[in-house]
Amino acid sequence: MDFEGIIEKASNLLMDSNFTIGLTGAGISAESGIPTFRGKNGLWSKFKVEELATPEAFNRNPKLVWKWYKWRMEIIFNARPNAGHYALVELERLGILKCIVTQNVDGLHHLAGNKCVIELHGNIRRGRCIKCNYKVIFNEPPENIPPKCPKCFNLLRPDVVWFGEAIPKNELERAFNLFSKADLALVIGTSGIVQPAGYLPYIVKENGGLIIEINVEKSAITSIADIFIKDKASIALSKIVKYIKDKLTSKLYDASENEL
Ligand code: NAD
Ligand code: ZN
User: Fold this and answer.
1) Per-residue pLDDT, 245
2) pTM of the entire structure?
């Protein structure tokens, strides 16, 4: 099947679905200029993510971990949602996409305008006190690192889920419930190797549902995907939304013709 044929098939499956859930990863934000973990991170490529995004690393050297997060915050605070994020807003408005479960910590789905977003791994725009759990919203990266809790003056940590940490119970339960209900999972820009997020599409598959995946390369989910769209998220999603809108418009037009 050619590319247009694949887009058409994916769009029709989305329109026919009763309950589509999105799963997004770092790939959807790559075109907003936010580096994925499994790419070249320039300055930081000499560190492994697993050596920075862990509670052990933070205990050992909070300043180094904050330096990395400050660098990431600078990129994220300057980033804007891209056409891929906006296409997901359209799919939600059309009533097709019920919710997005994201592994991203950049907050771009909210910024784009999606209403139902579950952030499995927290949000880099928030800090959390390691002692009293007080949460702080950052409007810009903290000037002095490591930043301190305004309540009890202990250290703040980024309010994100690190390797080896559990996903907050509420978010995890909501994600599992949604994926258990879904008859279609739209999986975008994730390597699928971070668990339990990578497992979520498997629930849909086990329940007899369908998987549409968009990624520039194969992932740990591709083997169970019914449709694999090998392209950038912004391109594939924009095409899908255009196809669906055109089809809905022509249906409306046909209906009004019939009434005459
Ligand atoms: P990942 O870095 O492991 O994988 C990124 C995936 O995106 C890859 O499969 C890659 O092929 C694909 N990709 C790259 N560019 C793409 C594009 N333009 N369109 C479609 N796909 C594209 O990311 P992950 O699977 O999300 O998991 C790793 C962890 O990284 C998560 O826990 C997440 O919290 C964290 N992370 C988040 C951000 C962010 O918030 N933007 C950035 C980096 C890492
Ligand atoms: Zn505190």
Assistant:
1) 97
2) 0.95
